[in-house]
Amino acid sequence: MTAVMAARHLLVTGGVLLAALLLPFFSGQAWAAGGLPPRSASLAKARVTWADMPGAITYQVAILEKETDSPQAALKTFRTVYAPGLEFLTDWLGEKAKTAFWTVAGFDIDDAPVGEWQKPAPLREAETQPTAPLPLDEYDRMAYLPVYPVYAWLAVLRASSYEVEVWRRGPDGRDERVRHYYSYETSLYETDPFTQAGDYWWQVRALDGNGRRYSDWSAPRAMVVTESAPVAALGDSITHGGACSATPCRQLYNWETYCAVPVKNIGMSGDNTEAMYERFEADVLPFSPRVLVIMGGVNDFRVGVPADTCIYYLSRIAEKCRAHDIIPVFVTATPIHPTRMERLEEIEPVAENWQSEQRRLNDWIRSQPYAIDITAPLTDEAGRLRQELTSDGLHPDYLAKKTIGEAIGAYLAGNFPEAVSAARETAASIPQNAPKKTAAPASDYRP
Q1: Domain locations in the chain?
Q2: Burial of 246 (0-12, 13-18, 19+ CB in 10 A)
Q3: pTM of the predicted model, to two decimals?
Q4: Which long-range contacts (CB under 8 A, 24 or more apart) does 24-30 make?
Q5: Across-strand partners of 12?
Q6: Residue 171: its pLDDT value, please?
């Protein structure tokens, strides 16, 4: 892996830190036999969930004594919740736990509400005493598994860290573990591509401060890798997906969700055009696409990389495509909004000449035999990404992703009917049922 490809994994994209922190001190630790850790289910707690709210960076959950109570008069309010769900203690409610209600509202990056508080729901109907983390992926609703999946789950109350396993169904019908991670975060971005066809599944469990089991394993989540994908997309985080506080494993902020054509997601958060070029053989060719949608450049010109450099690498990608009988379809680079980007310390300062370099890059893209122009509807009168379409100034939010996906879908359907038909047949053949676990369960303790 080159320095360029390694560096991209350190970037913050989609408002989520790309953290897959290993816990090396676990490796030499041993515990006394029978010293089972306290289980998270021993706590009196409840877990509530809700659908992603467009534009929400955080959520607030209010516990109400009565259904008619105002959230401002809540018994307790949990603020700055970043996921579409929450575990919380209920012992403080006493008998009121049987009659209390809960409600939730979303808030944007300025802490302004993005909609109304939801209708209160009885707390007694919430999940009680959950024994395992709740996975948040929506891969079973996507046309294909992304080449770089993201694992995300709701935080387990008082957990210190998490253990993630990925298994693959072997040719003998047994499952073999192929990936094994530890993380202090509640999301984990894959850095190794899934290109070998087969049936996979992943699971997660919580660990305590000593690295011992704190919860049960979550229910397995199926992931299917097909042998081919007639239509695929190579790109950066805008193709990979996610925005606000949602990761790419959720559908809301993925343009592929709104594309009328099934598209294999070969996006990689943090990529510049050089990194896209470097992983072409490893990530694109295994799926033998007939059409490859190519969208990149924003991670170049925003930090001062000349448009000529982007054009060089995109041209090389096009040459590789033609050498393998793949039709390259370029998509214009989205604008950015520097003022909004400046509010986030994790994002590098924006180059002063970004607009001139974006224009030069997009002029070249528009000159290609197959090109999709999605820039105009996303751009304000000053040439920036429209403020209402982005939270962080870099990543397009829901409405922008919808605009991008619909435009790409319409173009593909109108220009490549045979490839589109093949893509729909391939996506329709993917089984969505989770494989049953046949291998022996992993040990409750780290060796």
Answers
A1: 9-23+132-225, 44-128, 231-428
A2: buried
A3: 0.88
A4: 25/211, 26/182, 26/211, 26/446, 27/446, 27/447, 29/210, 29/211, 29/446, 30/445, 30/447
A5: 17
A6: 85
Reported confidence tier of residue 343, pLDDT bands at 50, 70, 90: confident
What CATH number is given for 9-23+132-225 in this structure? 2.60.40.10
Strands (E) across 334-386 are located at: 371-372
pLDDT, residue 27, reads: 31
Residue indicated by tokens 């950015």: 336
* pLDDT (0 to 100) of residue 112: 96
Instruction: Give the whole-angstrom CA distance, residue 187 versus residue 410.
Output: 33
Yes or no: say if 268 and 148 are a contact pair by the CB < 8 Å rule. yes
Over the stretch 150-198, which tens digit does the pLDDT of each residue have?
Answer: 999 999 999 999 999 999 998 888 999 999 999 999 999 999 999 999 9
The per-residue pLDDT for range 87-123, each reduced to its tens digit, is: 999 999 999 999 999 999 999 999 999 999 999 999 9
Please, what's the b/e burial string for 173-200 (b: 16 or more CB within 10 A of its CB; e: otherwise)? eebeebbebbbebbbbbbeebbeeebbb
**What's the one-letter identity of residue 92?**
W
Residue keyed to tokens 């790419």? 248
- The reply to whether domains 9-23+132-225 and 231-428 share a CATH topology is no
Length of the chain: 447
Q: Which helix (H) or strand (E) holds 289?
A: none
Percent of the chain with pLDDT over 70: 87
At residue 18, the 3 state secondary structure works out as coil
Q: Which CATH architecture has domain 231-428?
A: 3-Layer(aba) Sandwich (3.40)
Among 165, 133, 177, smallest CA distance to 438 is for: 177
Give helix then strand counts, H and E, for the chain.
Answer: 10, 20
User: What is the pLDDT, as a whole number, of residue 36?
Assistant: 45
Q: Please give the C-alpha separations between residue 191 and each of 261, 265, 343, 394, in angstroms, as whole numbers.
A: 26, 14, 28, 22
What pLDDT is attached to residue 438? 39
Residue 137 CA, distance from chain mean position: 8
Biggest CA pair distance of the chain = 70
For residue 216, which of 320, 129, 283 has the smallest C-alpha distance? 129
Beta-carbon contacts of residue 216 (< 8 Å; ≥ 6 apart): 41, 131, 132, 205
We find that the CATH architecture of domain 44-128 is Sandwich (2.60)
Q: How far apart are the first and last CA of the chain?
A: 30
